[in-house]
Amino acid sequence: MNSTPKHTILCVDDEQQILAALKRLLRKENFDLLTAANGEEGLKIMASQDIHLVISDHRMPEMSGISFLAKVRETYPDTIRILLTGYTEIDSIKASINEGHVYKFLLKPWNDDDLKQEIRKALERYDLIQSNKSLHLMLAAKNKELEQINKDLEDIIKQRTRELELQNQALELTRVLFRGLPLAAMGVSYDRTIILINRQAEKLKINDRMICVGNCLADYFSKDVMKKMSPVFESQTGQVAFDIPIDDKIYAMTLSALTGRFRRKGFILCLRERAA
């Protein structure tokens, strides 16, 4: 049992016996076959439904087959066009073939098997052209989608780059402010290691030792002082403040856990000399 036809063929000829012969020949083929007695009728049929292949006689009154197929090409360029012609008319249609008005011409009288084979080839060509068009459209859509993705990515990169620039500016400003604080300040890691000091801390001696990055707080402060700071270190939150003696002077010590985006990332220890 034949499957549902997916192609429609239009045969145009002013001789009814030719159309009848084509119907008999092609009745068992798996496509829909329509007929028209002249070019004008053929164009009306094509305006009402999709035609995949047109087979037209060359010699017809009012509108020749070449003129008819030229109009088909102009309005329905995807439709495959075959011209039926006599041997003596070959020279007159070569120009139309070269100009693309006609895909192929077949001589009359035709060989039934050859005609069927040419029709199958023409429909295969139609399917191949449509498949290629679909692939090109799909590729164009994918390229457009890729262009949009690239544009979005460029926008994201620009935004991230700007954010990083601002962050770097903020960090640089923070570093400058930290270095210029009018009191001794130290950045301390979670394991109580000094990782950053400012200018005032560089000048400070505790127990006759200069404060250096990489040393532990326990190298400078007594067990009692470390014990007082312990709750902040252990919870990594909050703040503790108390006074301690350093070289016969009293300093207000403040240990604060970092907050915000740097929460649980470290601590700031500040030492401010008490006024006498």
Task: Identify the strand order in the major beta sheet.
Answer: 2-1-3-4-5
Structural class designation: alpha/beta
Give the end-to-end Cα distance, rounded to a whole number of Å: 111 Å
Number of domains: 2
> Which H/E pattern describes the elements?
EHEHEHEHEHEEHEEHEEE
What is the mean pLDDT? 89
How many DSSP E strands?
12
Shape: rod-shaped
**Percent of residues in beta strands:** 15-25%
User: Main beta sheet: strand number and arrangement?
Assistant: 5 strands, parallel
Radius of gyration: 46 Å
CATH superfamily grouping of the largest domain: Response regulator
CATH topology of the largest domain: Rossmann fold
Poorly predicted segments: none
Q: What fraction, in percent, of the residue positions are helical?
A: 40-55%
Compute the number of helices. Answer: 7
Q: Return the CATH class of the largest domain.
A: Alpha Beta
CATH architecture classification of the largest domain: 3-Layer(aba) Sandwich
